[in-house]
Specification:
single chain; mainly alpha; two-stranded parallel sheet; about 5% strand
Length: about 130
């Protein structure tokens, strides 16, 4: 997974990261591949951001994650508080947490029925 921001320098950094993945795959690890490119800290009303998102999608197509992660003040706040973003109750934090869930679902397919664990019941520990 390559995470980038929608600005000029990050756009080139993402391209170089993808090239590095290709070089390493060719030289030493043929199974290595980039799973997705995630666009982080997007400001939807910024025309330059929109331009760079379009450039990333044009250059890398389906490799770019379908959703962009908006800039959200809840992310650094949760980091400083050492608490999960999912525990914050602001609308922006909830939105970004749901997008992180979508990203995780895209990267890690759900376990098959044969490998799914049974739910843990705490009742046996409390009686």
């Amino acid at each position: 997974m390559i995470v980038t921001e929608p600005n000029h320098f990050a756009l080139h950094g993402a391209a170089e990261a993808l090239e590095a993945v290709d070089v390493i795959a060719a030289a030493t690890n043929p199974s290595l591949r980039a799973a997705t490119v995630v666009i982080n800290r997007l400001r939807p009303d910024d025309r330059e951001h929109a331009l760079h998102v379009d450039q990333l999608r044009t250059a890398h197509g389906d490799l770019v994650f379908a959703h962009t992660l908006p800039e959200c003040s809840g992310v650094p706040l949760s980091q400083r508080a050492a608490s999960p973003l999912h525990s914050w109750n602001s609308p922006g934090s909830r939105e970004v947490a749901e997008l992180f869930d979508d990203l995780l679902d895209a990267l890690l397919p759900p376990p098959s029925a044969a490998h799914r664990q049974q739910p843990i019941s705490l009742t046996r520990f409390l009686t």
